[in-house]
Specification:
The protein is mainly α and 152 residues long. 89% of the residues lie in helices and 0% in strands. The chain has one domain (2-150). The protein is built from 4 helices and no strands. Bound molecules: protoporphyrin IX containing FE.
Length: 152
């Protein structure tokens, strides 16, 4: 069980930590220094690399999470904080799938055709959705750790 939990938390660190860095630090730094074409090309490159790690994290998170639920005896035998975690987790995965297959794909096409206002608008959409997933991710960590400690 500790082995599964280790990889579960590692996946959380990579996904949520990566979103925190992108949203809170890289966005401000890139906005201050780079003009739109370079800034948008940078984000295209950053997302292409980061989203590979997110896919890996999503797969590890779901496998380890549901393996732990199975070892606890199934969803009827785990406490409410695990139900909430699974619910929030599925919400995060759905938002990521939308961002990856819809928003990021449109963003890439607009960057490739050098449509800077269009790609800027798509980047704003991705930023809002990543921000939403960051808030859900941090709330899920709080639910997992504090809910578990309180025995909820
Ligand atoms: C998607 C489905 C998910 C399932 C089925 C799941 C399931 C679980 C289970 C069964 C545990 C062990 C609980 C315990 O031993 O008390 C756990 C631990 C944990 N989960 Fe998840 N989880 C999921 C998603 C997430 C997500 C999205 C996050 C955070 C963004 C997260 C963060 C954590 C953390 C931090 C722990 C360690 C809690 C502790 O031991 O104090 N989980 N998860």
């Amino acid at each position: 069980m500790s082995f599964l939990k280790f990889f579960h938390v590692l996946a959380v660190v990579i996904w949520v930590g990566g979103m925190f860095f992108a949203y809170m630090i890289l966005r401000a730094a890139a906005g201050e220094i780079l003009q739109p074409p370079d800034r948008l090309r940078l984000w295209d490159n950053v997302f292409a690399r980061f989203f590979n790690w997110v896919w890996l994290s999503v797969i590890i998170l779901l496998i380890t999470g549901f393996c732990m639920v199975y070892l606890y005896g199934g969803l009827t035998h785990v406490s409410s904080h695990v139900h909430l975690m699974a619910l929030f987790g599925m919400g995060m995965v759905s938002i990521f799938i939308y961002v990856f297959f819809i928003s990021f794909r449109r963003f890439r096409l607009k960057v490739a055709s050098q449509d800077w206002p269009g790609s800027g608008a798509m980047l704003a959409t991705i930023r809002r959705l990543v921000g939403l997933n960051l808030v859900i991710g941090l709330s899920t960590i709080a639910t997992a750790v504090l809910g578990g400690a309180a025995g909820i």
